[in-house]
Description:
alpha/beta; seven-stranded mixed sheet; 11 helices; 44% helix; globular
Amino acid sequence: xxxxDRELVAQLCAARAGVRVDPEKxxxxxxxxxxxxxxxGFGSIGDxxxxxxxxxxxxxxxxxxxxxxxxESAFFRDREPFTLFRxxxxxxxxRLRGAEPVRIWSAACASGQEVYSLAMIVEDxxxxxxxxxxxxxxxxxxxxxxxxxxSGLYTQFEIQRGLPIRQLIRHxxxxxxxxxxxxxxxxxxxxxxxxxxxxxxxxxxxxVIFCRYVLSALVExxxxxxxxxxxxALSPEGFLFLGEQESAxxxxxxxxxxxxxxxLYARNPAYRVAA
Length: 275
């Protein structure tokens, strides 16, 4: 790939989805785009980008963005946010909502491990929280990522990354040399393709939003836009989970950190969400 090719990819990703791509990271760009070029029938990445310059095909442009926006995922990644969700956030919101469902959104669910981790917690906590009602949503910008997530099918390597044996036995079934999430858990989740820096006015309101490791992956101008979008989607009593080392400070006054709970944010009561 030439520098012009790599800069084109970076510009495309920033403009379409706010995704930050460093044109100097040649290996990363090539490793993400080479499989796409092969699937699309091109002899090289350069040939694929040449066609894009000539025709600006929307489907191909978005396929490139999705390939570059792929994110890493693991069951119960970082562990602490899930413990906090289980022990404090979910019980508190269940009491607050009463007969109404607690609405939980995994906003960048990648291949599904995060939202399935949340679903497992919900199932495991039903005995402790009688009458608990939950609606779970998993979204991502990548169609192929969502297809994998919806299948609920994972390799042994993916299973070993963070999934306790108790959850494996309770919530998974063997499928040849892989593992599949139980039908019950798969049916709990609604899936949708969403670009988080686009208009989210039709997304609805949520009580919990997990949006981890997205903020740090965006170009600077899009970080504030993301937080404004999330503020519009979060209920006034709701909670936002960001990733470790991520912070809303200096980007938007829509959120304030919850004291003593790293990565957990609440809506700033003084912030007025624009219609």
